[in-house]
Amino acid sequence: MLQKRNFVGCGTEDPVNSFALDTIKPTRGLADNNFLWDNGKVLNVKILSGSTMLKEKVKRYAREWEKWANIKFNFIDDGDAQIRLYLGDKKGNHGHVTMGLGIRALMRDNADFTMHLDTTSLTIEKVLKGTVMHEFGHAIGLMHEHMSPASGIKWRKESVYGRFKLMGWDKDMVDAQLFQKYNMSYTNGTRYDSKSIMHYPISQWDTQDGYNVDWNFDLSDGDKALIGALYPKGNRENEVPRVAISNVARTSIENNPAKNGLSIYPSFTISCSGKEADIYYVSFLLDEDNKFIPTTSKNFNINNNAGNLKKVKLPLGQITSLNKGQKDFEIFIPASELPTAVAGKKVKVWFRVFLIKEDELKELVTFNPSSAVTLQ
C-alpha cells in the first residue's frame, strides 16, 4: 500500500535567510519572489529520456500549473531549454530534484539536466502526478510548504533522523529538507497550507503531538491562488529585483606585475528584471586548503578576512556578459594589501554574488573556488 512506501523527498535547494516583499493578498503557500520568471514567460522544456508514454504523462501533469498561472511550458525535442528533465534511475545518486529554484536553473551548465525524477519510485500513477507537479512547482519558484514558519510542526527530530538514515539521508540533508524554517517574508503574507502539493507527507510518529500530513497528489486551492497571484493574467504587482545568472565559468586569478597585485576575473552572464538591483561582487581569498585568510587591511577586508567587495547597480532589462572571450571585468587586490603571511604561497579566490536588500544580503550564487596561483 502507498502508506507503507518509503518516502524519498525531493532534493531541491531551499534558499535561506532571505527577505521578499509581500506581493499577494493572503492565501497560502511559499515562494521566493526574487527567483520568479517573468510574468507570461514561455519556458522551453526538454525531456532528455524516458518512453513516449511517460513523457506525455509528464507534459500533462506539468501543465496543471498553466491552468492557474500566466506561464507556459513549451516542450521541445531540440534546441535550448530552460528546464531539462532527466527521467531515470537515480542518475548521479539523485532522486527527485530540481536543480535551482525558478530562474536559478539558468546557472546550470547547458549540458546538464535541471530536473531529475527517479522513475523507479513513480510506478503508481497518482504518485507520478504529484511528484511532477511538485518539481515543476519548484521550477517556477515555489518552495517547500512544510518549512513554513507558520506551520507550527513539533518534530521528533531523533526519530526522523533515524528513519531517513535508512533511506540514505544524513543529518544535514534532513535538516535542509525538513527542519529548516524560512523567513516569514517567504510566506508572502500567507497562511500555512497542509494540503499544498509542495508539502511533504508527515507521519504521526515523527511529531511530538501526533500531527500528520497525508500524501498530496493534487494542487490545493491555496496552490492555485498563490501561483495565480505570482503569475497573474494582468500585471504583476509590487515587483522585486529578479537577478538571473547564467553561462557560469570558473573564476580565474593571476598575478598582475604591471599593477603590482592580484587580478580576479569571474566569468558569467547577468541580467535584471522586475526592478533594478544593487548587488555585491564578493571575492574571498583562500589558502590551498580552502580556508579563509585573516587580514588587518582596512580596505580589502571582509569580516576580517582578505578579499575585495565591489558594489554594482544592475539596470533593468540589461544583459551583461563578463569576461567572455576577452577580459573586460576585473576585481583587483593590490600586493600591498595582501597579508604578509601568504607572500610566495598559493592562494585561491572564492567568488560570490549577493543582492543588497533593506535588511540583509541575499546570496544569489556561489562559484567554485578558482585554481590556485602562487603569489609573486
Topology readout:
Blueprint: E1 42-47, H1 52-62, E2 72-76, E3 83-88, E4 97-98, E5 115-118, H2 125-139, H3 157-165, H4 171-179, H5 221-230, E6 242-256, E7 261-273, E8 277-286, E9 301-302, E10 305-314, E11 319-322, E12 331-334, E13 346-356, E14 361-366, E15 373-374
Parallel strand pairs: 1-2, 1-3, 3-5
Antiparallel strand pairs: 4-5, 6-7, 7-11, 7-12, 8-10, 8-13, 9-10, 13-14, 13-15
Please, could you describe this protein's structure?
- There is one protein chain.
- The termini are far apart.
- The chain is of the alpha+beta class and 376 residues long.
- Helix 1 crosses helix 2 (125-139).
- A hairpin with a 4-residue loop joins strand 13 and strand 14.
- 14% of the residues lie in helices and 27% in strands.
- The longest helix has 15 residues, at 125-139.
- The protein folds into two domains: 2-230, Collagenase (Catalytic Domain) (3-Layer(aba) Sandwich), CATH 3.40.390.10; 242-374, Immunoglobulin-like.
> Regarding CATH, which class of the largest domain?
Alpha Beta
Fourth CATH level, the homologous superfamily of the largest domain = Collagenase (Catalytic Domain)
State the distance separating the first and last CA atoms.
Answer: 66 Å
Q: What are the segments in which pLDDT stays under 50 over at least 5 consecutive residues? A: 1-9, 11-28
Radius of gyration: 22 Å
| Mean pLDDT reading | 85
Largest sheet: 6 strands, antiparallel
Q: What is the name of the CATH topology of the largest domain?
A: Collagenase (Catalytic Domain)
The H/E string reads EHEEEEHHHHEEEEEEEEEE
* Count of helical stretches: 5
